[in-house]
Structure prediction request, 259 residues.
Amino acid sequence: MKPRVLILFAPGINRDGDLSAAFQQAGAETEIQPLRVLRESRINWLDYQILALPGGFSYADALGAGKLWALDLQVYFKEEMQRFVTAGRPVIGICNGFQALVKSGVLPGNNGTDQQPVATLTFNQKGHFECRWVHLQVESQLCLWTRGIESTIDCPIAHGEGNFQLQDSTSLTHLEQSGQIALRYLKPDGTRAAGQYPFNPNGSISDIAGICNANGNVLGLMPHPEDHIFDFQNPKRDTRKNHSGLVLFQNGVRYAQDS
Prediction:
């Protein structure tokens, strides 16, 4: 049977359809559920094998990008999130979904407890919205979403608050040593962006584009791999083939099938 993906929908989200298409292309069944419906229903999240938080502008990004959505996860869905994460099931948050996972404390990995988050996503270093294609290097073999991927990934970004920062250098060292840095920004020639704009489009520390939790089942990233799952979506397909973001979703679906 195909794994079932629960896609959370908050007011202002606009990439739910793209994310659904990516998972379907990877071999899964998808179901988009508004948070309001989930609050009022008896839907069991564990009836699904994968949980996904798409991009957009939840609640118009009031109080900061993803902040109010993060409060939903902390207050209304705290137990559901904890059960899904601790069960080791695949979870992915993209762009606004990544912001919600970080600001709720699910990432880097306290599973939504009351512990003070050590990371945040704040305003882009250049102070304006960025909409461009980026190149990504897979870093983590711990993360089930990135494990075994050898090729670089090309996909778009679209965000104003994608600058990933940590509270101190110790936190960065911990993420590096634990294998939780999942993706980094690259230059087109395949070398590290080294903080250079526009290759690192937002000023994120250590060129970090995505991280996972300590168990490797929760991935959060700012770029949009769901918007490069077909060759025709790539504006440089004549010179940069086989750099699709579909591999991330195929990894998640394959893991869910085998579990």
